[in-house]
Amino acid sequence: MTILVTGGAGFIGSNFVLDWFEHAGEPVVNLDALTYAGNLRNLASLAGDARHVFVRGDIGDRPLVDRLLAEHRPRAIVNFAAESHVDRSILGPAAFIKTNVEGTFTLLEAARVFVQALELAERERFRFLHVSTDEVYGSLAPGAPAFTEAHPFEPNSPYSASKAASDHLVRAWHHTYGLPVLTTNCSNNYGPYHFPEKLIPLVIVNALAGKPLPVYGDGLQVRDWLYVRDHCSAIRTVLAKGRPGETYNVGGWNEKPNIEIVKTVCALLDEMRPDPAGARSRLITHVKDRPGHDRRYAIDARKIERELGWRPAETFETGIRKTVRWYLDHADWVHEVQSGAYRDWVAANYVAR
Ligand code: NAD
Ligand code: DAU
Fold it and tell me: Rounded to two decimals, what is the model's pTM?
């Protein structure tokens, strides 16, 4: 048996593929377009491993997806492929509609046709797992209860609107066509291979370079942080035990304001690699806020615990320490991803702030 993973060269997808093999998973066909966010170096440890078949391509390329399904006959599709950065969606939303909405539609259609032609036993075993985000639920007021799976969708950014649209398509393909889908809505991940356009890796790499640490607005926006390998274990669990048609919220029970995250990272760097120029917190710089910035996300992860027995293994304290250590030990990886295109993005996003 095989599974088809899309977006498996990105941050969470590559962690998932590595984690999958560490847990004796079946062979993986990894379909990834290798946008700026995809990096085969994340999967270097799998070089020469026949269990991993990498295919460079777009989830919106229907003939390619049809061919991969016919050739490999996967028992599941796990869809990570997406444009994932909110700030990029504000500066250029078109790619988000193309991949997150049209791409997911194409995958669903290909899966529908493929599954219809399967024998009954294979059809019953097949799963389409769609990896989504807590951002589809919108923003919470301080003190409001955390998002449950029944919370209405109120997306506020082009990114979250495109993910909400894809979640709706996934739901409809189950309801109308009986496609055996599963959806996970997860909170903010952090950990190894996180592209340094996102808050935690950006703060680590800037702090090590003695550059300003940009905090949007007052820095009191709250996110619920989950170590990436815990997200991977949640996806494995949902794939194995989730009920088709259901959605599962995944979170770390770790709500923290951004400014606290930035200060924690500074303190860990000061401890692990002291800076003769002084405490890294001196680099914190408040900059113009993100337009439409969601104030607070919080995930109520009781359903996945109650029904499937999943809980995160890491606390924020253990996860963030591992993450800072990983970046200190992988300066080559950081250097490689800070290419010309990365510098262009930093200029586009931060110069006007
Ligand atoms: P990422 O941006 O690091 O990686 C996305 C990957 O998808 C890249 O390898 C990229 O090359 C690939 N890709 C993009 N467009 C593609 C296309 N058209 N066809 C094939 N491949 C394509 O993203 P991530 O942070 O790893 O997120 C993965 C998924 O998890 C996304 O669907 C995202 O919405 C969701 N998610 C992310 C987080 C988070 O905190 N990062 C939290 C919850 C959910
Ligand atoms: O909640 C899940 C989502 O988490 C995922 O669906 C997205 O794919 C992922 O990118 C992430 O979205 P956020 O917008 O929350 O992540 P980001 O790391 O971009 O920002 C985290 C918080 O930090 C947010 O409130 C904005 C703020 N921020 C971010 C950057 C890049 C800053 O203050 N300064 C920065 O330079």
Answer: 0.98
